[in-house]
Fold this protein.
Amino acid sequence: MKNFILSILSFISASILNAQTDIETITMQNIQPVYKQKKPHGDLYTAGQPSKDSFFTLKELGIKTVLNLSSDEEIDFPEKEVVVNLKMNYVNIPVTPANLDLKTIEKFSAVLSNPENYPIFIHCSSANRAATMVALDEIITNKQPVETEIQKATQYGITKEALKEKIRQIMKTKEGDIK
């Protein structure tokens, strides 16, 4: 009987330790299904469009702000309502090739510059715009080299050459405005 009780206690202890280990190993990489989710730096994450259920996981992982770069037409559920009901901040700055300019970047950078918004989860439909905007913010706000940030952004979302060229174009225009 004593061995039986010790076996049960051993099993319970092992189960508790495994549960604790499972909780400790939850990271942003475990979010499913978030398409192309990456952590560019610090408490800032980029991804393609998360599923409705992924926002519950994001909340559990401590995300404070969801920054959506998609238009309402690109999303097939009431994302703002889901995020707000989960008591996270919701910001929507729809980014398109037509409005990807310094004014849009300033709005984006204002969200990123507020420490109260972190950890922050930035997404669009495919992670391309999310990575583009993070790269532009790094270049403009933190004075990082254009090509270095473009290279980094290819690791966390940019797959379209047109967006890399758009970054270069914006920065040439900005440099011209400064001179």
